[in-house]
């Protein structure tokens, strides 16, 4: 609000370090862990990919997350204003806030289609619970998925429900909304995931999954696999979208940014690995293809659930888990923009949340139509590179491959090269060795790595 005095007292703070960690982990843990990580691991040969991915999390993901949280907490406003304030305090150009602008536009656009996919998860809870997968064949389940994608009406209903759930929570604010939902859903998600792993252990193919995930076969790892690992490190930790800046703006001054960032990264990684341990035994037990691609979750797994003992129960559980994960991530995508609207206009939180949610919902309709009525509409089809790409494909491409790395790169350069070292030392409160390590990573390693991925995605 306009009366914000910048101390953080007026705008509220997370009630504990744990509340922040769970909310940030709620953002990080999403479809990326449960849907994307298993299939990119499957496509890139397993263990060796996992190893590279872990390295990327450690030397790129964590340093950038720390930078974003630092910017938010130091600025104590919405991401754009925070970056401007930090720039001004360091006698730098206010234009550095472009990094937050790019991140927030990305968050808004990503939410528009993330909500459509979140809607699929919601609709699959119903299918699983009603036994629609029982005795299914690859064909019947393919038809079920195809039927959903080809029906604008069904997609719209689920998209509306998902967006409604997100707006509902964000409109209730920090403690009554974001924090409350994260502290309930994250432990629940973890328990559901452990149950799913326990179930996977009964398939008799658990050992196979463990060796698939943890035995490095460097022969199966290509250069593009390495770059995918790097890009995924970004996406999975929700970086480059101003989210950690927004969440950091409510973080108490006494909390260690480094320790919290490491905790969030560990939780995210543990969930991704557990998801792999839950999914691959089922895949192997049913003779399915580990590198089945994006269809793994919505086509391959239901087939398995439909033909296994207790498949109805565990299938339902699995999609509830997926919905929880997507929900807390959706919330975090809406928060930065809502925080900005709330501070910049006379609208209160509820009004801001409804307004932004409504606009985002509208944009999401273009993704829905891309799956059916507009499946042949390729707005950039005149360029060879974008031939056949629908609006949905383009939104995904431009956010993931251009906006996120760009925002992350600018953040790393700004924090590494244009913020006073003393100010960083004071806020991060690390001991000498740890600080030097982080500082070296954010100044040199992170920017170079991001530029390489960036160039590869654009021109490779
Ligand atoms: N980090 C989330 C995941 O792994 C994805 C996400 C990206 C969520 C951006 C929110 C914002 O699925
Ligand atoms: Na993630």
From TrEMBL:
The keyword Repeat does not apply. It is found in: Membrane. It holds the Pfam family SNF. The chain crosses the membrane at residues 18-35, 47-73, 94-117, 155-174, 181-201, 221-248, 260-284, 313-334, 354-374, 394-417, 437-459. It comes from the Bacteria. It is a multi-pass membrane protein. Keywords: Membrane, Symport, Transmembrane, Transmembrane helix, Transport. The keyword Hydrolase does not apply. Belongs to the sodium:neurotransmitter symporter (SNF) (TC 2.A.22) family. This is Transporter.
């Amino acid at each position: 609000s306009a009366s914000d005095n910048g101390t953080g007292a007026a705008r509220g703070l997370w009630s504990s370090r744990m509340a922040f960690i769970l909310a940030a982990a709620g953002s990080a843990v999403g479809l990326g862990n449960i849907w994307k990580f298993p299939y990119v691991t499957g496509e890139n040969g397993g263990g060796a990919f996992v190893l590279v991915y872990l390295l990327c999390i450690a030397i790129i993901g964590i340093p950038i997350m720390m930078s974003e949280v630092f910017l938010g907490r130091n600025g104590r406003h919405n991401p754009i204003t925070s970056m401007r304030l930090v720039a001004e305090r360091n006698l730098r150009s206010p234009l550095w806030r472009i990094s937050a602008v790019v991140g927030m536009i990305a968050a808004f656009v990503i939410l528009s289609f993330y909500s459509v996919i979140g809607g699929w998860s919601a609709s699959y809870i119903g299918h699983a619970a009603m036994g629609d997968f029982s005795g299914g064949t690859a064909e019947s389940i393919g038809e079920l998925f195809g039927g959903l994608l080809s029906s604008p009406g069904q997609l719209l209903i689920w998209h509306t429900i998902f967006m409604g759930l997100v707006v509902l929570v964000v409109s209730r604010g920090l403690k009554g909304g974001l924090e409350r939902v994260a502290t309930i859903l994250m432990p629940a998600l973890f328990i559901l995931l452990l149950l799913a792993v326990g179930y996977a252990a009964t398939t008799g193919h658990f050992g196979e999954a463990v060796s698939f995930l943890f035995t490095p076969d460097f022969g199966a790892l290509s250069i593009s696999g390495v770059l995918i690992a790097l890009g995924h490190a970004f996406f999975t930790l929700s970086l480059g979208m101003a989210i950690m800046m927004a969440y950091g703006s409510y973080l108490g001054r006494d909390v260690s940014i480094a320790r919290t960032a490491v905790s969030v990264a560990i939780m995210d990684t543990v969930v991704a690995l557990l998801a792999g341990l839950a999914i691959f035994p089922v895949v192997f037990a049913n003779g399915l293809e580990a590198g089945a691609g994006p269809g793994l979750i919505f086509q391959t797994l239901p087939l398995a659930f439909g033909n296994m003992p207790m498949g109805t129960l565990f299938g339902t559980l699995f999609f509830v888990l997926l919905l929880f994960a997507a929900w807390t991530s959706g919330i975090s995508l809406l928060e930065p923009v809502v925080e900005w609207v709330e501070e910049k206009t006379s609208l209160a939180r509820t009004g801001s949340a409804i307004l932004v949610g409504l606009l985002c919902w509208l944009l999401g309709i273009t993704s829905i139509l891309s799956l059916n009525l507009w499946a042949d509409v390729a707005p950039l089809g005149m360029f060879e590179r974008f031939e056949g790409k629908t609006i949905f494909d383009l939104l995904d491409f431009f956010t993931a491959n251009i906006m996120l790395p760009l925002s992350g790169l600018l953040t790393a350069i700004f924090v590494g090269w244009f913020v006073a070292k003393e100010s960083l030392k004071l806020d991060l409160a690390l001991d000498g060795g740890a600080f030097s390590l982080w500082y070296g990573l954010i100044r040199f390693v992170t920017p170079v790595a991001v530029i390489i991925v960036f160039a590869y995605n654009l021109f490779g």
